[in-house]
Specification:
mainly alpha, Arc Repressor Mutant, subunit A, 2 domains
């Protein structure tokens, strides 16, 4: 029975991924992750963005180059050997529109569920996400497409678990 649940969860993951990719339009998952990271967290280097997007630094440089060419990202000067990146006004608008499209597509998946079912699903998702969280680095990667204005602080099971892991005296270390 657990295998059937796991298989259904896998199908849902594929559906969620497909809906997110469709909402992103021409942007890759890596470019989307970079836009959202800069949108919610401010300036970052290509190396920082590579870590969050789960890609190599040379790949991140190519993706950033494409975002710069589109006028969505700009270099914010130099900091030693690296150049911090930030969103342009167009990038801010694009990130907002992309997040709205993504959430609207995902929200449609909830339409068949009533309020009680949604509350149960939210509790189960919180437990699953918190249980999978192993570090702050994991949190940054898994939450790379989250809307951090909605899911932040105590509302975020991933960030809350990462904070608990980092707390002194809990015997757990960050990756």
């Amino acid at each position: 029975m657990h295998m059937l649940i796991a298989s259904k969860l896998g199908a849902l993951a594929v559906l969620v991924g497909d809906l997110s990719r469709t909402a992103a339009g021409e942007l890759s998952a890596s470019a989307t992750a970079m836009l959202f990271t800069l949108h919610y967290h401010g300036e970052a280097t290509a190396s920082d963005l590579a870590t969050v997007a789960g890609i190599t630094q040379p790949t991140a440089v190519r993706v950033v180059g494409g975002l710069v060419e589109r006028g969505l990202v700009e270099r914010a000067g130099r900091l030693g050997r690296s150049a911090p990146l930030r969103l342009t006004a167009s990038g801010i608008r694009a990130a907002g529109a992309l997040q709205a499209a993504r959430l609207a597509a995902l929200h449609r998946l909830l339409d068949p569920l009533g309020g009680d079912d949604r509350a149960v699903l939210e509790r189960l998702l919180d437990r699953m996400l918190a249980g999978a969280t192993t570090s702050r680095r994991f949190a940054r990667t898994v939450c790379r497409q989250c809307d951090h204005t909605l899911c932040d602080g105590p509302a975020c099971p991933v960030g809350s678990r990462a904070t608990a892991i980092e707390s002194p005296g809990n015997g757990e270390a960050e990756e």
